[in-house]
Design goal:
Order of helices and strands of chain A: HHHHHHHHH
Helix content of chain A: over 70%
Oligomer: heterodimer
Radius of gyration of chain B: 30 Å
Number of helices of chain B: 12
Mean pLDDT of chain B: 77
Helix content of chain B: over 70%
Mean pLDDT of chain A: 80
Distance between the termini of chain A: 50 Å
Largest sheet of chain B: none
Strand content of chain B: under 5%
Structural class of chain B: mainly alpha
Shape of chain A: elongated
Distance between the termini of chain B: 98 Å
Number of strands of chain A: 0
Shape of chain B: elongated
Structural class of chain A: mainly alpha
Number of helices of chain A: 9
């Protein structure tokens, strides 16, 4: 067992015994480790900080359920991922603005057709356009698909880790990753052919 | 020929598909499936992780300030306090640590080396605590020196994981604090000043963020270098070793 984990367990014990301030040690140790994954999902520092707070609050309230032998960092990561999922679900309910002005993928591909593939201002413009289209396509995924895809493709988590973090069966986690890629392909395929 | 499903192709791109050998064989033989596989690969390659901006420096403090008022008070029952394995383990660990610290403080405060002075021969023969302290201080300085040497040799360009060094620094901090207080009490300003500098550097290392950047590491290295800390530790460490040897000889002579 790692030194850090031994110490985390001792701090958890202190908090459980009534020392509320000891929880600060856990906040100071683990805030940055969950910041990255949450930021990747929200793309916004304010939302990220809000979710971090919620994740720690949930962890504090469920501390009795934390098992001494497991890793506090992994346990908190799972809570953070689920808080992010809740946040995205809530946001989806209130977010009714259209993501793109032109929902027709073929028409959008035509907008970015370029004559030359040589590097230059046009090429840079295309790269910026691709990034914004990828961001828009990501927003069209369901929160679970988006999280599963982000964890698998961008965070390099295994299917087992994803299924554990999202409380899904392995098959369901695989399916979420697949559906995310399938939707992204549909959204981005015309754009990809435009860059060839 | 039966083609692969889109799901098989996508999952194979991540290495998550079942029967991957058969899929590889099929992709080798079937240009249609291979084209889809390459398309998916190309699309995934275009989706790179966006760089996450460095969060504000005092993020942890901000989070804690907002959080602490929202934490409900915890009032564990007496039974829970007594029988909780967490509680017992922590209490035993704390009690053990406290006992060691109290003992160390007692010995360090009472017998901090003040140069050779005449001691009661019976006491010296029975316990020789001065030598115990000298050995402990010498050991502390040696461990600190090794830690700082490791830090100074860490390459600031490569990825930096100082978790092991940080754990060592945390261990050394408590003892250093006690030795510094004892040195101050016994009027040993050079040792006290060196231990004070060492304590600051140890605290810096122990409290550094887990994802330490090259610039942070460079700052710590500069701090060690600019104060000539390693040199001071070596000089005082060797002085302590000398005193330890003298003390040993002195008590041996007293016994004869």
């Amino acid at each position: 067992m790692e030194v850090m984990e031994v110490r985390d367990a001792a701090v958890v014990a202190q908090v459980l015994a009534g020392d509320q301030d000891a929880f600060r040690i856990l906040v100071e140790r683990h805030t940055r480790s969950i910041y990255t994954v949450i930021y990747r999902m929200t793309g916004n520092p304010q939302d990220t900080e809000e979710i971090i707070q919620e994740a720690f609050l949930r962890a504090y309230k469920s501390l009795e359920r934390f098992e001494l032998r497991s890793s506090f960092a992994t346990w908190l990561y799972r809570i953070a991922v689920n808080r992010t999922l809740d946040f995205l679900n809530a946001k989806k309910m209130t977010d009714i603005s259209p993501i793109t002005e032109n929902p027709d993928p073929e028409a959008r591909a035509e907008e970015v057709q370029l004559q030359s593939a040589a590097p230059g201002p046009d090429r840079l413009l295309l790269s910026t356009e691709i990034k914004s289209r990828i961001a828009a396509a990501m927003k069209r995924l369901t929160p679970v698909e988006r999280l599963a895809f982000t964890l698998r493709h961008l965070e390099g988590k295994s299917i087992e880790e994803i299924s554990e973090a999202l409380n899904l069966r392995t098959d369901a986690a695989k399916n979420s990753v697949f559906r995310a890629v399938q939707k992204l392909r549909q959204q981005l395929a015309p754009l990809m052919s435009a860059t060839k | 020929m039966k083609h692969l499903t889109e799901e098989q192709i996508v999952l194979h791109c991540f290495g998550d598909a079942e029967h991957s050998t058969e899929i590889d064989q099929h992709l080798h033989a079937c240009s249609e499936c291979r084209e889809i596989f390459n398309q998916v690969k190309a699309m995934l390659a275009s989706i790179e992780p966006t760089p996450v901006p460095e969060p504000q420096e005092n993020l942890e403090q901000e989070i804690w300030l907002k959080l602490q008022d929202r934490l409900p008070k915890r009032r564990p029952s007496i039974l829970q306090r007594i029988f909780s394995p967490h509680f017992l383990q922590a209490r035993w660990a704390t009690a053990g640590a406290m006992a060691v610290l109290v003992l160390a403080a007692f010995i360090a405060g009472r017998f901090w080396p003040r140069g050779p002075e005449k001691t009661n021969s019976i006491e010296a023969a029975q316990l020789d605590p001065q030598r115990v302290v000298l050995v402990a201080v010498g050991d502390h300085l040696e461990r600190s020196q090794m830690l700082l040497v490791e830090i100074m040799h860490t390459d600031a360009k490569s990825s930096i994981d100082l978790s092991r060094e940080q754990a060592q620094a945390r261990d050394l901090l408590d003892a250093n604090h006690l030795y510094r207080l004892s040195a101050g009490k016994k009027g040993d300003p050079s040792v006290e000043a060196m231990l004070d500098q060492l304590e600051r550097v140890l605290a810096e290392i122990a409290n550094a963020p887990r994802d330490l950047g090259p610039r942070d590491l460079q700052e710590i290295q500069n701090q060690v270098q600019s104060q000539g800390l390693l040199f001071k530790i070596r000089v005082i460490g060797s002085k302590v070793r000398q005193e330890e040897i003298s003390s040993h000889k002195y008590s041996e002579n007293q016994r004869l």
